[in-house]
Amino acid sequence: MGFYQEDYWAIEFLLEKGYLQKGSSVIECGSQDLLCTREGKSIPNTKERKSAREIFEQYGFKDYECIDMDGGHNALQFDFGLDLKEEYQYNKQFDLVTCREFGHWIFDQRQMFENLHNLCKVGGYVIWRPFLAGAFGYGFYAYNPNKILHLMFANGYKMIRVYITEQVYKENGEFAGRDRKYPSLLCENGADFLNALDVYLDKEDTWRKTSLKVGIPSINPTIIWQKTEDKSFESPLYYYDEPERTITRNAKSVLKNCFPEAKKGNVAIFGAARAGNIANEFAKASGLNVACVIDDVQTGTANFCAGGGGIIVSFNEFLEKYQNQCDFILVGPYQNGKIEGRDGLRIPVCRLDGRWFV
Predict the structure, then answer these.
(1) Distance in angstroms (rounded) separating the CA atoms of residues 229 and 131
(2) Which residues form the domain of 307?
(3) What is the pLDDT of residues 119-128, one digit of tens each?
(4) What does the alpha-carbon distance between residue 31 and residue 75 come to, in Å, rounded to a whole number?
(5) How distant is the alpha carbon of residue 311 from its chain centre?
(6) Using one digit for the tens of pLDDT, what is the confidence trace for 26-82?
(7) Which of 105, 136, 202, 258 is deepest in the core (most CB within 10 A)?
C-alpha cells in the first residue's frame, strides 16, 4: 500500500475542479506509505516509514486519520472486516475516503464496502484502487470491472474520473516496478468505463502479455466516485430475470452516470421491436419521457408504448418534427440496426449496455 503519482493527480483534480476545498477532512483505509514523488520518482526505502499524511497536509487538508491493524502512522487499529459503527462506536464521516490496494485483503467484502460507504459524507468522495480481474489473484480478491459499475449504480454513486497503471511484483513478493506509460485519464463516466478499459487492456506492450518469469502483473485503476445519496449501503446482488426487468434496476443511477444531462427529459427510442421495448422499460424506470419511436420499417404505434409517446416515425420525419424536442436517442441492447452517424442527426445516440445491469 502506498501513495503514488496518480494519487497526487487525483487529489489535485478534486481540488482544482472545486469538488473538495482546502480544509477538507480525509481518512485513509490503510496506513499508506509515501513511496513516490509528484514527478513519479520512487522514494528510497528507509527504516522509518514516511506517511502520506504529510502530502495531504501540504494540499491543505486539516483533519487526517487512517485505519490499519498494523498501527502504522498512528493508525486506528480497527478490523475493517467488522462494522466500525457497532464494533468500535466509530461514527465519524469525512469529505474524502481513500482505499488504495487495501480492500482486496478484507475477507468480508460486503462489510468492507459498507464501511467505506458509512465513512463518506453525502456529497463526499471515495478514491478506490482495486486489482482488476486478471491480476492473478493478488490478495484475496481481484474485481470484475462490470461489478464495479454495479456497486456504484446500486448505491447512487457517480463516477468522476478513472486513472490506470500497471505494476509487477517478482515471485518473492519484491516490488519490481510500476508502468506509467499509460497513466492518463481513462474515462470520466460510467458509459465509457468498460469500453475504454477494453482498449487499454488490448495494448501490445501490457505486462499482462509478458512471461511470469518477469513478475506477477496487475492492473490498477484509480477510481474516484462521489456519494450522492443519503441512503444505507446496498449490495449489488439480484436474482436472475429477463432484460425487460433487469434493465429497470438502478435505472436512475445508470442515467446519472452514463447519459447526457436530460434537460427536457424527452427521448426518442430507436427500434420498434424487442430492443425498443427494453429501452422503453428503462425510460419509464429512470423518469424519461418517450416522445416517439424511430423505425426504418414499421409504422403506426409501438405496442410497448400504448400509454402515449408510441407513435412510430421514419428517420426523416423524426428530423423534421421531433429532433428539437429530444435530448438524445435511446437504443436498447441487442439492437442490430444503427442510427449513429446519419445525415442531419444533431443529438447524441446512447445505447444501453447489458453489462451495466445485473
Answers:
(1) 26
(2) 243-356
(3) 999 999 999 9
(4) 6
(5) 36
(6) 999 999 888 888 887 877 766 677 889 999 999 999 999 999 998 888 999 999 999
(7) 258
Residue type, 329: I
The verdict on 54 and 118 lying in the same domain is: yes
Angle between helices 251-258 and 190-201 (to 10 degrees): 60
Helix, strand, or coil (residue 164): strand
User: Same structural domain for residues 128 and 33?
Assistant: yes
Cα gap 240→358, rounded to integer Å: 8
Q: How does pLDDT run across 205-262, given as a tens digit for each residue? A: 776 777 777 777 777 889 999 999 999 999 998 888 999 999 999 999 999 999 988 8
The structural domain count of the chain equals 2
Co-location of 6 and 135 in the same domain: yes
CA distance 358 to 283: 17
Q: Which long-range contacts (CB under 8 A, 24 or more apart) does 305-312 make?
A: 305/269, 305/280, 312/272
Do 257 and 192 lie in one domain? The reply is: no
Query: What residues form DSSP beta bridges with 52?
Result: none
- CA distances, 324 to each of 264, 266, 320, 328, 342 (Å): 10, 10, 9, 10, 16
- Report the alpha-carbon distance of residue 302 to residue 287 in Å, rounded: 19
Q: Where are the beta strands (DSSP E) in 190-347?
A: 216-227, 266-270, 289-294, 300-301, 311-313, 328-331
**Same domain assignment for residues 249 and 210:** no
C-alpha to C-alpha distances, 245 to 27, 101, 169, nearest whole angstrom: 38, 35, 43
Q: Which residues pair with 175 in a beta bridge?
A: 169
Angle at 284 between CA 283 and CA 290, to 5 degrees: 60
**Do 201 and 279 share a domain, yes or no?**
no
**Bridge partners, 330 (sequence order):** 269, 350
